[in-house]
């Protein structure tokens, strides 16, 4: 039992604390103008002076390009146009901090963007008509 604690103190691999903090971003589909619209913020508690935030992934620098962007100084994430959940329900983005030369200082850290459904499509019944019966006084369920 004591050997476990001894190993933990003398372990040659130092534990690195992440300073970039990202929470999932929830965005309702079919939002109207104006765009761009701020939708979230990335925080870096130990960000060196002069460093910048960088955002990558599908919806940023991969198709469909240009949907999301980040303010490289403040970490504010914005959406540039209306989203459609039926086209894409989630976006997996990555945030990192870079120095002035573009060299990665920390990250990439995953940032999930979830598109919230707005029930904007009529139901489609492929078969039918559907006929159902419920007896009067039936129990719930």
Automatic annotation (TrEMBL):
GO cellular component assignments: adherens junction; catenin complex
Disordered: region residues: 32-58
Database matches in Pfam families: Cadherin (PF00028)
Localization (cell): Cell membrane
Matching PROSITE patterns: CADHERIN_1, CADHERIN_2
Domain Cadherin stretches: 27-125
Gene Ontology MF term list: beta-catenin binding; cadherin binding; calcium ion binding
InterPro entries linked to this entry: Cadherin, Cadherin-like_dom, Cadherin-like_sf, Cadherin_CS
Biased composition (Basic and acidic residues): 38-52
Record's keyword annotation contains Cell cycle: no
UniProt keywords, alphabetically: Calcium, Cell adhesion, Cell membrane, Cleavage on pair of basic residues, Glycoprotein, Membrane, Repeat
One GO BP annotation of this record: cell morphogenesis
Matching PANTHER family: CADHERIN-13, CADHERIN-23
Official protein name in the record: Cadherin domain-containing protein
Species per Swiss-Prot/TrEMBL record: Gulo gulo
